[in-house]
């Protein structure tokens, strides 16, 4: 096993009963007697109570982009580098100085660079080219590469990654996705890659020219279940052959590397596929929202990869890794929703305070004000559950439950925040004069997205 | 210290201990006292004695006093995080309410009045009223949510205040040893003149008129109390006797920042009881709740479970946040109201959905599920209704005065 996560949900409601201890036993016995008619009749209630006291004290179709060659590095120690974070013993919602600094820097970038570029990027269904370079200067990918590969990570930073995703999406979710995708690949390799996989790919993720890449899980299929994939990996003498169609591939046309989910021996696993591999075709697949991400499909037709392409090495470890990667990415999508949700709220507040109807600001009316109150409350709901999941993952605790719950809140409440945002602006909210309709479309996507934003 | 939303070990001790009482004392007698409204649950005296014993050995969790009466460990160095009395109280309340929220409200010496005393009393008053069982008397027949409309008067006469008026919905009003009464010292000065007074229940001029018959929390006595020329020492006024029209209502209202997370905690406890029962029933029916598969692909009941658990988790974390902020001396009015608003609506949704999913089986008195649904309603009403909480949140978020956003 390459995952350090606990195998069982230790936080699930109804799955972790408290056993009765000696105090409980004493409580049951004593109160059974105290409440009895016998005690009433013989006036022994007071003596028992005293005993108790005493006793207890992106339309194109193309081949994959290929700007560089990843040279397979062999002959390492065989020991992959892993990051861990020590368990914490205090409930705390204040980020530490490093988390605070990173989140603030990213938010500044999001507000000053991403937000102004968002409208046109949405229209063009592509991110401006210089953006990737500028974000590389932020170092959001290298913070997930261990120091041994010239990265900046000394311990797991799932919470930090959540704060980064949130801050980026505050600027624009569509632009945030392709910028965060390489970070998701770095995280995946760092946490689950074999020594060879790490040595081959990770050093590029620590440099200034980070390869555009993504962890690809989704498939264009109704009722899609990430744990029952249609894309298949079959064993061949030279390794594996992949067949299937993947969707939700950010910056699909310019990506150099994919980590692709496919069913192996009946269970899902991840395969590292370089974009110039024969049989791999990318196709544009713009959607309702997150258009700036340049979403595309991957068509895999007899794509042959070597044995070393299976993430984590062997089938069991690969499956365990897949599970955690999907869960981590769901937390990632929730973190994105928290950021976009905050953008909606921050936009709507001054609008309802300034917009007048019947001679006063519309926010003077409960019908409007209460919608804002609910948006604020449910935004915090998404955020807190996401952070709990991230903090649990970071410490090696089970987090499938929190990932599922954060996702459910993103699906239900995240969407509602988007819809209410438009509603509060009335007809204006329905036009492209305001960013709210775009944010609503993005929030609709956050509850559907899989992979990519692996925290 | 970085972000972490797990509880420290010491708080797990608090939870475990409260759970023993909830599971071994409250649950077995929960239906008994639901059926015998107004009977005094004698088992609670045993619990009170047990708590006293534990307190003496320093093993007891903080009660409704928010841990103020305990000597807290000072935070170590700058930027240290406190997980203290407020968190402990909330966890205690969650756990005991999981057992039975009506009984939780009847635990001797842990009344909401005790929280009020802890929030606004001077050290000297804390000394005098630290060991009382204090009920809270705010509501009057003529008003509910509009707490500034207090018509009960307190007139200074020599060294004594003379209290006159009628209070309703006084939780534990007939069992508590003391009552914290909201009264106005000068009706012409408006809300700034509203002060709280500690009145012993057995004092001359204090009369328990009747007890309410209710939908839920039937074991909890809800009293109507009349004050007829009730004379109390002027030192029984909590906080400052001065009427500061600039500061206004803040003095007595700050109590709510401490008590709302507690009521949210009650709701979280009851919601968890119902969810656990649903989990048990689904297990028995062979319906699996799979956190990895999309909720929409699973059995409708399992999908509902995940939806409800997501709301439950949000309510729990919003509540812990409000208490954590109180422990760390951060202003938490908005967050306290958020926790109360969310938990209040979530507990009603969950308990009633569980009754629905269990059908006539859940509707029956054989289980406690229908009782939890009845108990849940009050949790979205008392200590500030859903609507009042939303008003508070909206005013804060939109930066509006009560004159602008009515």
Order of strands across the main sheet of chain B = 1-4-5-8
Shape of chain B: globular
Oligomer: heterodimer
Q: Strand order, main sheet of chain A: write it out.
A: 1-7-8-4-3
DSSP summary, beta strand count of chain A: 10
Beta-strand proportion of chain B: 5-15%
What is the makeup of the main sheet of chain B? Answer: 4 strands, mixed
Query: How do the helices and strands follow one another from N- to C-terminus of chain B?
Result: HHHHHHEEEEEEEEHHHHHH
* Helical residues, percent of chain A: 40-55%
Report the principal-axis shape of chain A: globular
Please report which band the strand proportion of chain A falls in: under 5%, 5-15%, 15-25%, 25-35%, 35-45% or over 45%.
5-15%
- What is the number of helical segments of chain B per DSSP (H or I, 4+ residues)? 12
The end-to-end span of chain A amounts to 19 Å
Q: Give the rounded overall mean pLDDT of chain B.
A: 91
Mean model confidence by pLDDT of chain A: 92
- H and E order of chain A: HHHEHHHHHEEEEEEEHEEHHH
Poorly predicted tracts of residues of chain A: none
Cα-atom radius of gyration of chain B: 21 Å
Quick structural gist:
Chain A is of the alpha+beta class and 455 residues long.
Please give the structural blueprint.
The complex is a heterodimer of chains A (455) and B (406).
Chain A: H1 22-34, H2 37-42, H3 45-55, E1 61-63, H4 97-124, H5 130-138, H6 158-171, H7 173-192, H8 195-206, E2 213-216, E3 232-236, E4 239-249, E5 257-264, E6 267-274, E7 280-284, E8 296-306, H9 315-354, E9 356-357, E10 360-361, H10 366-394, H11 400-425, H12 436-446
Parallel strand pairs in A: 2-5
Antiparallel strand pairs in A: 1-7, 3-4, 4-8, 5-6, 7-8, 9-10
Helix pairs in contact in A: 1-3, 4-6, 6-7, 6-9, 7-8, 7-9, 9-10, 9-11, 9-12, 10-11, 11-12
Chain B: H1 9-35, H2 43-56, H3 85-99, H4 101-104, H5 112-120, H6 123-129, E1 134-137, E2 153-157, E3 160-171, E4 178-184, E5 194-200, E6 206-211, E7 222-233, E8 237-238, H7 250-284, H8 300-327, H9 333-358, H10 360-363, H11 369-379, H12 386-398
Helix pairs in contact in B: 1-3, 3-7, 3-8, 5-7, 7-8, 7-9, 7-11, 8-9, 9-11, 9-12
Cofactor (chain B): FAD
Domain Acyl-CoA oxidase/dehydrogenase middle (chain B): 135-230
Pfam families (chain B): Acyl-CoA_dh_1, Acyl-CoA_dh_M
